[in-house]
Every structure is written in C-alpha cells, then in structure tokens.
Amino acid sequence: MTKSRLFWPLVVLAILLLINLIYDPSFFVIDIRNGHLTGSLINILNRGAPLILISIGMTLVIATKGIDLGVGSVIAMSGAMAAFIVDGNLGDSERLFPLFLAIALAIGLSAATGLWNGMLISRIGIQPIVATLILMVAGRGVAQLITGGQITTIYYEPYSFIGGGYLFMLPFSIYIVAFVLCVALYVTRRTALGLFIESVGGNPLASRLSGISSKNIVLMVYMFSGLCAGIAGLILSSNVASADGNNAGLWYELDAILAVVIGGTSLMGGRFFLMGTVIGALIIQTLTTTIYSVGINAEVILLVKAVVVLIVCLLQSPEFRKKISGLFSSSRKTPKDEGVNHHESL
Amino acid sequence: MNRFKLNDRMIPVMITLMLFAFMYSFGMFRYSNFTSPQVFFNLFIDNSFLIIVAVGMTFVILSGGIDLSVGSVIALTSMVAASLLLAGLSPIIVIPIALLVGPVLGFLMGCCIHFFNLQPFIVTLAGMFFARGLSFLISVETVSINDDFFRFMASTRIPIGNYFISTSVIIAIIVVCVAIFVAHYTKFGRNVYAIGGSEQSALLMGLPVGQTKILVYTVSGFCASLAGLVFTFYMLSGYGLHANGLELEAIAAVVIGGTLLTGGVGYMVGSVIGVLMLGTIQSLIAYEGSLSAWWTKIAIGLLLLLFIGLQRVIVHRNDKKKNTISLKDTEGSDQIAR
To answer: Which keywords accompany this UniProt record (chain A) (predicted)?
Structure first.
C-alpha cells in the first residue's frame, strides 16, 4: 500500500485535516442549510476548485517536460473578458444569452492563449519557461486593457451561478471540476493519448520517430492547460463578482506547480498522476484553511509552501536519496528501502 | 584581439542598442521635455536597483540557470535593514548584515541545485516563497526608516553640470564595471560562460563546475541584496511586498539585452541597455499621458517575443553553420575563420 504514489500525499492531507479537527471539533460536520450542504470540507472543495482545475492542466503540461507560467494571467484575462461581456449593454439580467456568450468568449480566449503558447513551443521551438513567460508578463496587461484598468464589478445575476451557485445541494464549481477531471482521466487513461503524452515527455525525438506527432501532442497539452485556466478564471471572477486584471489569479501558476509536484509528478516529465495532483491541490487549499483557522499570520503560508516544495523536491531527487541512504548505510534496512525507491521510479 | 569585429554574438546587443536609440529619439522628437539630459539621468536614478539585479541575473542566466528569488530577496533585505534600524542599531552594523541576506540564501540555493541536482527553476521558486514569507514573518506592516545615513543616501544629489544623479547610480555603475571585469577577464567569468555553453564539456575539461554554479547563485543573491539596499534608500522603508514581480522585469531586461536563455552567450552591457530600454518604455508611456500603465506590460511582452524570436533565428543559423563546417571538414579552416 505504501508503494502507491497516492499514499504519502493522502497521509499529509489526513494529518492536515486532523490538525483542523483538533482546533475545531466541528470541522467534519456537514449541515444542510437552505437546501445546500455546508461545512468546512465542502468549503475546501469549493474554494479549491480553481486550483484543482489549473493543476490538472499543469500536470499534463509538466508530463511533456514543459511548464506553463502563463496560467495566472489567463485567469485574469478570462475573468476580464467575461466581465466585459456581461457588464456591457448585454448585461440585462432577464436573459441568459449574455452568460453563454461570456463563457464562450472567455473560454475561446483562453484556448487561443494556449494555442499561442503551444505554437511558440512546438512549432518555433522556444523553451517552455521562456515562451510562457511572455504571456505571464503581457497577459496581465491585456487583461487590464480589457477591463480598462479598473476592477469591473459584475451586477449580472446569472453569472454568479458559475462560482457561487448550487446544484443538487453541492456548489456548482465542484461539478465543473469533477467533469473536467473525469474527461482528463478518461482521455489519458482509457485512450492512447496518456501514453503519447508520457512518451513525448520522456523523449520527444524518439516518440516522433516512432510515429507519434510530438508537436501536436505538445500543442494540445498547452491548449488544454489554457482551457483549464480559463474555466478557473470564470469561477474565480464569478465568486467575487468582479474582474481584476492586476491581482486575479496572482501566484496561481506557482501553486499549481506546487500541487503537481506534491502529487508525485516529476518536473522531468514522462510520468503523470492526475489523482495525485488533485490531492496535492487539496493539500494546498487545506493548508491555507488550516493556517487561517489555527490563527497563524496568513502571510506565513509562503514560508510553509517554500519548505514543502523543497522537501518534496529533495525526496524526488535521486542524489538526495543516495546521500541519505549513504548516511544510514550501516543500517540493514537500506538496501530494501532503495529497492523500493528503485521500483517506484521504474 | 578582434573584439571590435562584429560577430554573431554581438548582433542582439547591437539591435537592442539601436532599438533603444530609436525609442529615445522618438521620445525626444515627440515630447520637448524629453530632450533634457536629466530625463536620461532619471532612467538611471529610477532603475539603479534593477540594473544591479539584472547584472546578477545575467551571471545566472549565462551559466544556464535562472533565479526567481531576486524580487523577494530585495523585500527581505529592505525588511531586515528597516527592522534592525528600528531596533536602534547603527547603519555600520545594519548594512553588512543586510548585505549578507542574499548571499546566504543564494549559497544555500546553489548548494541545493548542485549537490542534489534539482532544477534551478524550482529551487529559486522555493527561495522566492521563503524570502517573502520570512519578511512577512518579521513584520506584515511597512516599517519606515528615519536613520540619518539612509536619509543622506536617499536625498544626496551628485551634480553633473546643471543636472544631477543619485548615490545609487554610482553604486550601480560600480557594480556594472566590476561585473564586466569579472565576466570577461577572470577565471570565474570564463567558467560561467563555459558551463552555460555546455555543462558536460565544462565538466570534462576539468573546470570547477559545482563551485562555479554555487558561486553564481551567491553572486546573484549578493546583487539582489545590494539592490535591496539601494531600493531601501529609494523607498526609505521596509515592506514584504516591495519589488513584487521584479524577477520578471530582471529576466526580461537580460533577454532583451541579448543574453541567450539557454546560457553561454551574452554581455553585461546588453543587460544594462535592456534595463534602460524598459525604463524608456515606462517614461514614454508616462509622458504620453493618455496611455495607461498596463501598456508597459504589453510592450515588454512584445519586446520579449521579438528578442526570443531573434535568439531562435541566431541559434538556428549557428547550428546550420556548424553543420556545414562538419560537412566540409576538408576545407574547414577557412570556413571556421569566417
């Protein structure tokens, strides 16, 4: 059981939840209020929805040995686009047409940004960090251009359903996440696509020679990441009923990378674990909730994240494992441990 | 020494310089106030800390790495300096301590990168979180500075003719001169270029790869701390959100300055011109008035795209040239000479 990739992330999540339980005995209680399920656990799922979405997209990108730094900006752009549509003359709260137009345009815009990143990386051959850096810098500018530099407040009622609405007693955003996750899981685990993505991450040249269209796989992965970020942007802006080009989705790219790494996906590409990523994102969200509920200064969370990233990365590093096992070389357990690690990495 | 011959590697720097000259003259043409030399000096005054950071970043990028922690180190340095001054320590003690912040963090990050073979990107990302978290741990509020020496550094104007520069500009210029010397005339500089060109080859040549890599991050950390100090002179306060996102501007300046992000190719002067270019864009947009601040971001993004595309073309051409050399190996000598 401990061999499972999900074991350690799940243990961490459980510990975090237990800490919460100690500070707040009613933490696990789920009530029904006004026909809605409410409670801290539901809250974590609801608040964590955008992060989970982005992390799912980021997982596939990292699986191809890439990285997408532009997701935070795409969040801002998508929110700004939607706000621009529903805030204009179209924003009369009787009809649903503006809602669908806003969703379509925002998602179209985010897919276009994904296409842009994917083209730069797969066709022109720019390093992923650099190519997506362009969008990370310029994207916020574009978002502010759309909102006119102001924080646009959205008064259009139906729009708030995306992030704040309820369906069958649960927040609507949870359904969005579940849907995207199921699609991603199905497409990557029930079709050959997942294998293709892993093979491109392992060795793009070898996969091209064996007949996989590496370039199109890379292009598609970035488009999917852009799409996920766009949906997350809709949820976030709908949640706060406003669009802020400057601060919406700030640092989300880093949180997403962190979630992916905690979930056991290596930054070196070639392997990915979608469920691990989801748990990683939930860990980050629970950590935030915990820090608030324990009453520690909210900014300290950065410090905690730094330590977590470093530990996870060190644990993934073969050199570190070797050094640690070298320290305990007298202990007879070591060869067995290393055998396990070796097995895991295969 | 054929240093003045225009080789391939100088092309991006030349393009940057030309673009800078073009933008600046466009400004002079359009706004009468822009012709004042003071505008030019202001570029240095307002961006001296960015110049210092960009110099450190150039070393890191030349070695093939990246340092995302510089903005946070600036914030941490300003916070350490401000809080120690608040505690009543004299600047003679405070400044060395503040200057130690970056090198220590950089050294630790370099060690992680070298000894455990972690990606620079993720390690410095952790460093970024760590430094910002630490500065918030010291204080969440802005800590203002009332120290006489810091005020002196902030307000002193050094006259040049009818115009003036600030003390921070002097510091920045010294840093740039030292960096140019180190990069081009010392063993360390050569090693950095060699590692950026090909780490494998550098290792096989027997160069001290690990030592150089760790030192590169230490140097970048020191530059960030020094920039933090200059920034503190400029702002006269310490705050955890100071210099938010500055690492992106520094990377942008280095790239616009013609340094190859894969490492091994680039010049310190280029990065300085890159910073001046970013500064010019900002002042042009400020002078225009009707344009809003976010156009700066879009303009920087477009410039990044332009220069990354340019790098791609140059790398591609070099690869082709290498291929032709290896193909025509028999008549290779005059090919190489060209």
So the answer is: Cell membrane, Membrane, Transmembrane, Transmembrane helix
